[in-house]
Structures are given as C-alpha cells and as structure tokens.
Design a protein that fits this description.
The complex is a heterodimer.
Chain A: H1 29-36, H2 39-58, E1 97-98, H3 113-117, E2 123-129, E3 137-145, H4 154-158, E4 164-165, E5 182-183, H5 185-188, H6 200-203
Antiparallel strand pairs in A: 1-4, 2-3, 3-5
Chain B: H1 2-18, H2 38-49, H3 60-78, E1 87-88, E2 94-95, H4 106-126, H5 130-161, H6 166-172, H7 187-190, H8 192-206, H9 229-254, H10 265-280, H11 288-321, H12 327-355, H13 360-378
Antiparallel strand pairs in B: 1-2
Helix pairs in contact in B: 1-9, 1-11, 2-9, 3-4, 3-9, 4-5, 5-8, 5-12, 8-9, 8-12, 9-11, 10-11
Classes of the chains: A alpha+beta, B mainly alpha.
Chain lengths: 225, 394
C-alpha cells in the first residue's frame, strides 16, 4: 500500500544508480573470469557431489542413533525408525498415566479439575461414589482421547491429588482405528503406585464426617462494606 | 538393457548417497535386500500392473506408438557401439561384439538420434493435452537445437581419426602420443573441447537434468504428462538406455574404447595372456591364436563395461549436481556458446592436422586446453586487502 501523498519519481532511475544497499561486493576480474568460464565451478560442483557419493557409498554407516555422535566418514543421518529408535531427550515426559494407589485403585477422586483445565477437552470423566470409603468419589470412566491431547501438561498441574502424571517416557502408539486411541482406565492405570503422607486414607478410615466438625462452625463471611 | 535397468536403481541409490540419504532399502526377499536390487523388480511389477489410461481426447494409435518411437531409436543407437575387439575364429570367421558396423558410423548416430524427436513430439501431440503439447514442442526445440552442437563436437574427432567407423576410431586411439608409450591418443586428449561439446549436447539430447526442461515432472509439465503404467515406464527406461548408450559412444570415441591405453598396458596384458595360453595349450597349437583373441576380447569387453559404468556414474553425478537451466539459458547455451565454440574447434583442429599430421600438435593443443581449464579451477587469487567492514549499526 503506497501512500498517495508520497512524492514518487516520475523518471525511472538509471540502472547504474542503484541504492546504497544494493552495493554488495562484486567479484573482481579473476573471479569473473573463473565464473564466466563455467567449467571451474562445474568441476567443483562435481567434486563436492562425488565426495559425498564416495563417502556415503563406500564408508560404512555407524548405526548409532545419536546422529551427531556418529563416527566415520559416512554422512547419512537417517535413523531407520522401526529398527533403530531415537533416544528421547532427558526432559521428555511422555504419555499420561493414572497413578494407582497401593491397593491398585486410581488415586483420582473424579474432581474434574483436569477435564476443566484441558484446553483440548480431551478428558472425559464419569464420577462414581464408593459406598464406604474415606474417599467418596472415584472415576467410573476416565478417558483421554490421545488424538486430541496436545500434551500441554496442564492436567498434571491441575490435579490436586497427584493422580495424573506424565512420566511414562513413551509416546502414543499408532492405531488403525480412532476408537483404539481413546485410552480408558484399563490402559491409563499403569506404573508404580504412589502414596503421600497427606493422603486421606492415612488420616481416617471411615467416610464418617470428622467428629469435631460441629464444634468449629464455619465463620461467617466478611461482608463487604 | 540390463545395465539400464540397474541404472534405475543406481540413480536412486547413488543420488541418495550424494544427498546424504539412505535410498530405497525396503524391498526384500527372505529378509535380504541385496543393496536394494529387488526394487527394480518391484518397480517393474508396479509399472506393469498399473492402469493404462488413454485420455479421451488422445489419438489412440499415435498415443500408443509414441513410446515405441521414443524407445526404438535409442536401442538402435547401441547397435553400433563396439564393445570389444573382434575375435577371429577358425576359417577366417570373425565375431565382432558390435551389432552393426556401417561405414557411415557416426552419421548413423546423428541420424538415428534425431529420430527420437518424433517420439517426443508425437507423445506431446497425441496426448490431446495442451500442456503435454507444449512440453513436446519444448522438447523438440531443445533436441533439434542441440543436434548442431552434437555434430560439431564430433567433427574434430572425425578429422583426427580420418574415419567415421567406430571400431576404426577405437583402434586409432591405441596410438601413442608424443612418441612415448605413456599416453594413448584418446579422444579426450586430442579433443577436450569436442568432448565437452559432445557431452553437453548429448546430455541435452538425453533430456536429463540440468537439461530436463522437457520433462520437468513436478513444475513445468512435460510431454509424457498423460502417460501411465508401462507406457510411462517405457519413456523412463528409454532415458536410462540413452544414458548407457551415450556412455558407450563416449567410451568408443573419447576414452579409447576397449583398450587400456596407458603405459602400454594393452601390450603387457596381451603378452601375459599369450604366455598363459601358450603354456596351457602347448599340445594343440591350432587353438592358441583363437584362445588368445577370445581372452583378449573378454578382457576388452570388461574394460569397456567398466568405462561405461564410470561414465554412467559421471552422468548421474552431474544430474544430481546441477540445477535445471532456464529455457532461454538452454537455447543461449546451445546457439550462442556451444555452436561458436564448436566451429572454432573445427578450424583449430583442421589447422593442427594440417601442420602436423601425427596428432602430436593436436594433442599438445588439447593438453593446453585441459591445463587452462584445470588452472582456472585451481587458481585462487591471493587474498587482497580486506574490504572495509560496514559500519556497525547503532
């Protein structure tokens, strides 16, 4: 979009009056002769190509998957994926898992925090209630659509119970059917069990309300003036 | 033909090596890939089983004939390539590993090579597709333009050899230059300019990169746009056969054919073979001479095959080194650069032959030409005063 009020040159500029920023260094006489003769450059090009050829065709390839650490003259950087798998970097977290308790049930209390914060809305939870347990709720269904998941890790941060973690170090496996990539509890509930001192089942063993709850009624909310 | 088939694989594997890739390596039988050889089979199977689509607007007969028109001349060309020395069997019956040996020799090459234009332009025209027609016209214009340089590149060599027959040209190159045994009178030493001209022009005739404008598979659509299945495969194979044929002709004309040449190696080889054969067949002197000839023919054919493979490799490297020319650059190169150089080369060659019929002067001039080229390539100017650095931005 040119400004119509801007004064424009009526005469086209002479080609030799190039602006200063076009004043790149030009090759001097010999370079020009070399370039005009074409063949030096052609030979150099063939030399470069054949250097690569001989190096890659006759020198053995180091199967080390760490491309930068490969030894030898062979410069092929391909990693033959199904046979050779690249090593994940140390910071890699990987797919989710539902953390189990010591008794094998999920730590999850079906609070919907993860499903709420999930920007991709890939978590589906159906809550159920234990009839007689210090933890009242548990997920009947806990499904993550791994195709939708953007692996942002917000669910892990949102979880108040340390019930969902991204520490498996694996990635999502390819499937042939979309249904197969919706992971349920059966596939998500893996890995080592985790328990914390603060876990509620260490504090009390029934689902009765704490005995002193009535002695300390909730203080009234301060009223804004 | 087998070499051309293998070249389809070699093109993929070698280009992969040039570009730091792996190349095709998945086709396997019983878990063995053998360097990807089975991809040739897989390619052929794929081509043969694909649907053969003929466009509704196409002229069916010409559309089907065009691949053959493209294919046949190139195969005919290989007929006159001498692949080994003649073997005289008993009763004066000579077997030459050369299918046809017409006296017109190289003229046959030019004549048949220009026939390939018909296949290309027919393919473009019969497809009933405007883009294919444009591609065909482009290809025809390019091929016809480079016929001139193709011919002129070889004129010097014809003058030096004094013959058009390829087998005589090969034998001519067993002469030694400068009266010493080190250097054979190979065409590349006599006619380096002619070699470059012919090589460039023939490259344009093969329609391979950097002259692959007629095809330009992905960007500017070429003449075989409408072809599918094995008809397309025929075009592709023809291209590779062209590479092999070009390598064969180059070997015969510029690289001493089936002779080793350097340092009298041919004579040493002949003596070694003769002594071995004579010691083995001492009881039957009648078979000694044919046996020597046969062994030498086998060696000669091997040498020839090795040279051909080397030249095919060179062509593939060039194909994977250079970007495609623009179309006006192609015509510029053909008419404004190759043609004048070719004419000058013919005159210089004639002058040299007039002054010194023993080829030594011609070879000397050729050496100077090679030296100038190598010198230009290697000469780095001493670094001059460093240019003033641009002022640092504030």
């Amino acid at each position: 979009m040119s400004d119509p009020t801007e004064p424009t040159d009526s005469k086209p500029k002479a080609p030799d009056a190039a602006p200063a920023y076009y004043d790149v260094p030009q090759p001097d006489g010999l370079n020009t002769a070399q370039e005009r003769a074409y063949f030096p450059a052609i030979f150099k090009g063939i030399g470069v190509a054949s250097k690569h050829f001989f190096r890659n065709f006759f020198l053995g390839r180091d199967p080390n998957v760490e491309v930068l650490d490969r030894k030898g003259g062979n410069r092929i950087t391909t990693v033959q994926y199904p046979e050779e798998k690249p090593i994940y970097p140390p910071g890699y977290r990987g797919m989710h898992r539902l953390v189990p308790r010591e008794d094998g049930k999920p730590r999850c209390v079906a609070c919907y925090m993860c499903a709420t914060i999930c920007p991709a809305q890939c978590i589906y939870i159906e809550a159920g209630e234990y009839p007689d347990d210090p933890i009242e709720k548990y997920p009947i269904r806990f499904e993550i659509d791994e195709l939708r998941c953007v692996v942002c890790g917000l669910c892990v941060e949102a979880c108040p119970k340390d019930a969902i973690r991204m520490d498996t170090g694996t990635h999502c496996k390819p499937v042939y059917d979309r249904k197969d990539i919706v992971y349920g509890i059966d596939r998500l509930l893996t890995g080592t069990a985790v328990s914390h001192e603060s876990d509620v089942w260490f504090k009390r063993d029934t689902s009765d309300p704490p005995p002193d709850e009535g002695a300390h009624p909730t203080p009234p909310l301060p009223i804004a003036k | 033909m087998i070499l051309a088939t293998l070249l389809t694989l070699a093109e993929r594997k070698w280009s992969a090596a040039i570009q730091n890739r792996m190349g095709p390596n998945r086709a396997q039988i019983f878990g063995q890939t053998f360097g990807g050889v089975f991809h040739v089979v897989a390619d052929a199977l794929k081509m043969l089983t694909k649907e053969d689509v003929v466009p509704a607007d196409a002229s069916w007969l010409l559309f089907s004939l065009a691949p053959a028109f493209n294919f046949a001349p190139i195969f005919c060309l290989f007929a006159i390539v001498p692949m080994g020395p003649a073997v005289v069997m008993g009763h004066g019956f000579a077997v030459t590993p050369q299918i046809a040996n017409p006296d017109v020799g190289l003229l046959y090459v030019f004549g048949i090579a220009s026939l390939a234009v018909y296949g290309v332009s027919l393919a473009g025209w019969a497809s009933g597709n405007k883009l294919a027609l444009l591609g065909g016209v482009r290809a025809a214009a390019q091929m016809i333009s480079y016929e001139v340089a193709l011919g002129l590149g070889l004129v010097g060599m014809m003058m030096a050899a004094g013959t058009l027959r390829l087998d005589q040209m090969v034998d001519m190159q067993t002469k030694h230059l400068f009266g010493i045994g080190a250097l054979p009178a190979w065409g590349i030493f006599l006619q380096p300019v002619g070699f470059v001209l012919f090589f460039a022009a023939a490259f344009a005739e093969t329609k391979r990169a950097p002259f692959d404008l007629p095809e330009g598979e992905s960007e500017i659509i070429g003449y075989f746009l409408e072809y599918s299945g094995m008809k397309f495969g025929t075009f592709m194979i023809a291209e590779f056969v062209e590479v092999v044929t070009l390598a064969g002709i180059l070997t015969a004309i510029f690289f001493g054919g089936y002779h080793l040449g350097f340092f009298g190696l041919d004579e040493h080889l002949h003596d070694a073979v003769a002594s071995v054969v004579q010691s083995r067949f001492a009881s039957n002197p009648a078979v000694i001479e044919p046996s020597i000839a046969l062994t030498m023919a086998i060696f000669g054919a091997t040498i020839f095959a090795l040279k051909i493979i080397l030249l095919c490799w060179l062509q593939l490297v060039i194909r994977w080194t250079f970007p495609r020319f623009r179309y006006d650059q192609i015509q510029w190169l053909g008419w404004r650069i190759l043609l004048p150089i070719g004419l000058v080369n013919v005159f210089v060659t004639g002058l040299c032959l007039l002054l010194d019929a023993s080829l030594d002067l011609l070879a000397g001039v050729g050496m100077v030409e090679i030296a100038v080229c190598v010198g230009l390539a290697l000469w780095q100017k001493a670094p001059g005063p460093a240019r003033a650095k641009p002022a640092a931005a504030h």
